[in-house]
Specification:
CATH topology: Metallo-beta-lactamase, Chain A
Number of strands: 13
Helix content: 10-25%
Strand order of the largest sheet: 4-5-1-2-3-6-7-8
Strand content: 15-25%
Shape: globular
CATH class: Alpha Beta
Largest sheet: 8 strands, mixed
Radius of gyration: 24 Å
Number of helices: 7
Order of helices and strands: HEEEEEHEHEHEEEEEHHEH
Structural class: alpha/beta
CATH architecture: 4-Layer Sandwich
Bound molecules: zinc ion
């Protein structure tokens, strides 16, 4: 009997040691750190750049990049802008719009997302800077994602005269069926301040930008079409086709102060030269 007691005690003590040892060595579940991927979502040749710089450089050509981004956060994924339609990949010479934009796609967004194991159905949030065709081109790939959009943009896009704002409802009709969160200001997407939608009105009625605080890289603001290239940012110029030019300039000045206060860098989505220095997917920023 005594021998049996000793055996039971020994077994119990051994089990306790094993349990304690396993507790001590168990690591917390690896948390996916915040990541930002940039995608090539097309190229736009502008045949007369003066529409972006009123009264200047008449009939001069300029090529613009067209960039989309994926934010991977421990609590979910957000795609920022969807680029030109993937279908353009079948037209290598490009497709001309309004006689001034020649738009080309060399690699589809769907393929770029699959390449990094985030296929379209894994996207939780869809952040669209605004509803112009070069930003909503692949919106229909993400019917399950919650659309994050300012009220003024939603009302303009789905109201009586979307063409008044340069919107073509055929390019984003699927978004009417998405789950949607209508915003009336800045919005903290994951609740921890690391990924914020910034209300930046002017280019369109409810234009917005995306602020991402990356632990290693630093703070970045993705421009949307707040500005299209560095020269216009430096000189605070607004394109002739903007919804509200004065408001655009006011917003640009406010954003400049915000960037300074937060030591943040502006990534201009259409700036070809700046994009040449940014690592694109499958590389990423943390
Ligand atoms: Zn635009």
């Amino acid at each position: 009997m005594k021998k049996q007691n000793i055996l039971i005690r020994t077994l119990f003590a051994t089990a306790l040691v094993v349990i304690l040892a396993s507790c001590a060595t168990r690591q917390p579940a690896p948390e996916q750190p915040l990541r930002l991927y940039a995608f090539n979502c097309g190229v736009i040749d502008v045949l007369d750049i003066s529409i972006f710089k009123p009264g200047m450089d008449k009939r001069e050509q300029k090529t613009l990049a067209n960039t989309c981004y994926l934010v991977v956060h421990p609590e979910g994924t957000l795609l920022w802008d969807t680029g030109l339609p993937d279908a353009l990949v079948k037209i290598p010479e490009g497709s001309t719009f309004y006689d001034v934009f020649v738009m080309r796609v060399t690699k589809t967004l769907a393929a770029q997302l699959k390449e990094i194991d985030y296929p379209p159905e894994t996207i939780n949030f869809l952040g669209i800077s605004h509803m112009h065709g070069d930003h909503v081109g692949n919106a229909d790939l993400f019917p399950q994602a919650t659309l994050l959009i300012q009220k003024e943009e939603y009302d303009a896009a789905f109201g009586a005269s979307p063409d008044k704002f340069g919107f073509d409802p055929n390019t984003y009709s699927s978004l009417r069926s998405n789950p949607v969160k209508i915003l009336e200001g800045d919005y903290d997407v994951f609740g921890d301040g690391s990924v914020m939608i910034k209300r930046t009105l002017g280019h369109t009625p409810g234009h917005q930008a995306l602020y991402v605080k990356l632990p290693q890289t630093g703070n970045i603001l993705l421009s949307g079409d707040l500005v299209h290239f560095t020269d216009n940012w430096v000189h605070k110029r607004a394109p002739s086709f903007n919804f509200d030019k004065e408001r655009t300039i006011t917003t640009m000045n406010e954003v400049e102060q915000f960037l300074q206060a937060n030591q943040a860098t502006l990534w201009i989505q259409h700036d070809k030269e700046q994009n040449a220095d940014i690592r694109h997917s499958p590389a990423y920023y943390e």
